[in-house]
């Protein structure tokens, strides 16, 4: 068996600085430390304090999970908890999520984690799930895999090439920003899925478009949506920081009418 030596904290901080495309001078100015001291930290000639690691992490917008890793690499205990979503201390978070999901009906809305696995969703999400292969609906359901897989929602996406390019571009940027190998692997997997439509590397608006639309076939109807992403503004818990709400809104009146009609038809709606 081979063992992999953990990387020193200075090298990890340098990696995050380079990922953010900042010079040592710019980061030292932002963090209010000398560029000489920062250079010594990155090369291992100086051991950073706990407070310096946290300050540099804040300036570099390092995710909370990775901030704990930097602290461990520097010889300090992690400071950010990673609570289970069903833990009592997250009661208010769960309540807020459910209120947002319920309040968004009949429009689809869902909660995902950092790897785009489905955490929760409202009744409106079902229209994207119908007809998908059972293995794609087995937990954990990855919503990006489900959306682009040929046995998932992809056959019902009228503008699959345009939507696929948007999704892959967003995922590529997220993987680059976080350095998360799971996201890199997910991007490689989704990129290999078949698509018989042209894909643009740049989002170019069509007639009347102000955002990239999702045009979804539902029976004889073609529904048009745009989406928004909501995250918690000041998270101090890793689990909370990694949650996002994806909300879909009708992009035209016919889609709005369809959702309102089907929403009223659902039991309990």
TrEMBL record:
InterPro entries: Cro/C1-type_HTH, Lambda_DNA-bd_dom_sf, MLTR_LBD. PROSITE patterns: HTH_CROC1. Residues 13-67 form the HTH cro/C1-type domain. It holds the Pfam family HTH_3. Signal peptide: none annotated. CDD domains: HTH_XRE (cd00093). This is Helix-turn-helix transcriptional regulator.
